Amino acid sequence: MIYNIHYDICAVVISLFTIYYMFAEKGFKKNANKFFLGMVLCELISSFLDIFSSIVNSRIGQYSYFVRDFSNYLFLGVHNATPFIFVLYILYLLGIDKRMKKRHFFFLSIPLVVTLTALALNPVFRWVFYYDTDGIYSHGLLFAVLYVDAFLYMLLAIELIARFHGALPKSKSYPLLLFIALSLIPILVQMYIPHILIELFFQALGILGVMLSIENEDEVINHITGLYNRYLFMNDVGTAVKSGNNLHILTIKLPITSYYNANLGVQYMNSMMRQMALWLSGLNGEIFCYDCEGGNFALVSYTCSEEKMWDLAQQVRKRFEDAWYYKNLGMVFPAQICILKMPAEICTIEQLLMIIDAPFADQQSESQIVDSNEFDSYRRNMLIEQKMKEALKKHTFQVWYQPIWDREKGKIHSAEALLRLIDDELGFISPEEFIPVAEKNGLIIELGEYVLEEVCRFYVDNNLGELGIEFIEVNLSLVQCANRKLAGSIDKIMKKYGISPDKINLEITESAAANNQFAIKDTVMELSKRGFSLSLDDYGTGYSNFSHMFEMPFSIIKLDKSILWSAMDPKNSSGSKNARLLLESTIMMMQKMNYYIVVEGVETEVQKQLLEKLGCDYLQGYYFAKPLPAKSFLEYVERFNLAQ
Ligand code: C2E
Ligand code: MG
Ligand code: MG
């Protein structure tokens, strides 16, 4: 028979290209990469041997039986090793190898051992292949063993991909399944057209697909440090946890901020980071080193004991106590090192990233190994996030109201709406705690709509106007103001309840207004155009940029309680002369500029008297009332306003 070897030649070219690419990318850091290389080498050698043996087998009489035997045995042996290596590749890709015992590997190798034994005995029994009386190469009775062996491994591979589908993203599992299909289908085709050798060509295409989608290192390398990047870190850790592994992660957090980049220069910083990366990847032990960006490195180990991790942590701490040099300029970067156990301490990749991205402790000036409890505040935030989602779903957030007193009329003329989260398990959670979490995860938009809707319903249902309440003050956070859809969504709610904008005053904190005027100005202007009045909240806590402040259409300035309290402490009515002067002149100055003044945090009669003397327009504080649930607020206002 004359064989068509053109497809085999293409398979050789594809395999060579794949090997070149892997060497160029230096992509054999992990065992899985090494097994992939093993598959490509098998493919290359089999393709060569297939070409060689088909030439030798077709030219009967030209080559001795020894040469023919040699090429056939070598081809069949190497070719049949590919499915076995492929299964190992998947096991290592999933990280299951760490949990496998020697006996598991022994059982796994049985089909291959049977095949190799059949081949080894073939010179005696000629059960696998033989040469007929005309010297033609023919399949023997046991040739099917070779197919069964390959099918068994491919079935096992499919089973693994299906069982751990949660651990392998589709971008990985599909190319693996394609490789299996491209390896099996041509075998069936070749049964009918045995002289066209397409099997290895299709397998090479499958390998190319796996390389481009799984082994392509370009996407997973940080090009500055040369380490694996954050994307791969998330992928690897996610896969390992989902396939049931226990791992240790050593996080290394450095105070690398834009400050360093700006002052030392990007080139200097890049060089420092490269040196650190090089040093970290040289550490002894079965660890994988990742650059998680933003001055965060992570060392991941699937096998190291806790003692070994501590030993590594000590080595890192010691090294980071010394300087890193670039062109004789040395710099010490104190590292914050932490050992985390997954999934024992941290179950999800989101929690892990939250810890990795936690800000560097400012007060830390030397390298330290910190306890993972240090990150408790992050865990609490995560719990709060969950509680907020539950409360939104069950509608259990409450809006309380704190009365605001009008000095001239001596009555309650407005109120500030304050959000309350009271959880069965955690009790009262302060808005100071949950609002920043909501701002970070975007829930604040939903919360803002919730509050406004509650306020509108409350206003309409209780005819607050008749009780003397002119408007309700609603807090807006920076994130809400930066949302371009804010004005539209507020409008929609107001229309739903038939409330005019003058019944709502929107409060924006000073720090948000002063530092982010570009982000919020459009929204603020739009709201003002639609008829809402605006307050500048917590005045005195930020660093007001007056020029920006004056550009915004605020009508009320709310002085922060800290200004009042330093002028007159609620506990003992003491206060510095300068603070009192500041309070007095601020009120006077703002009023001259036509702003109304609200002073927050009025707790005592003497404070009230002082503010009355200074001509402050409105007073808010515990002296009048703490924030009250809706019903209590109504009773309070009825008593206060109607009694006079
Ligand atoms: P804020 O807008 O400055 O609200 C005033 C805070 O001061 C309230 O704290 C109030 O209970 C407290 N306060 C008022 N008078 C006194 C007093 O005499 N003594 C003392 N010690 N405290 C007084 P609260 O309710 O804990 O709210 C804290 C912050 O959380 C608010 O500060 C506001 O920035 C934010 N917040 C509350 N509710 C919302 C909301 O619905 N949306 C948004 N975006 N933020 C909210
Ligand atoms: Mg406020
Ligand atoms: Mg305030």
Q: Which strand order do you get reading across the main beta sheet?
A: 10-11-13-14-15-16-17-18
Q: What's the shape?
A: elongated
Helix content bin: 55-70%
Proportion of residues in β-strands: 15-25%
Q: Termini, distance in Å?
A: 114 Å
Rg estimate, integer Å: 36 Å
Count every beta strand, where a strand is a DSSP E run of 2 or more residues.
Answer: 19
Bound small molecules, which ones?
Answer: ligand C2E, magnesium ion
The number of helical runs is 24
Could you say which structural class the secondary elements and strand pairing correspond to?
A: alpha/beta
Largest sheet: 8 strands, mixed, barrel
Residue ranges: pLDDT <50 for 5 or more in a row?
none
Element layout with pairings:
Elements: H1 6-24, H2 31-58, H3 65-94, H4 102-125, E1 129-131, E2 137-139, H5 144-163, H6 170-192, H7 199-215, H8 230-242, E3 247-253, H9 258-264, H10 266-281, E4 287-291, E5 296-301, H11 306-321, E6 324-326, E7 329-331, E8 336-342, H12 349-356, E9 368-370, H13 376-394, E10 398-406, E11 411-423, E12 427-429, H14 431-441, H15 443-461, E13 471-476, H16 478-482, H17 486-497, E14 504-509, H18 510-515, H19 517-529, E15 533-539, H20 546-551, E16 556-559, H21 561-567, H22 577-592, E17 596-599, H23 605-613, E18 618-620, E19 628-629, H24 630-643
Parallel strand pairs: 8-9, 11-13, 13-14, 14-15, 15-16, 16-17, 17-18
Antiparallel strand pairs: 1-2, 3-5, 3-8, 4-5, 6-7, 10-11, 10-18, 10-19, 11-12
Residues 402, 418-419, 430-432, 435, 451, 475-477, 507, 537-538, 600-603, 620-622, 627 line the site of ligand C2E.
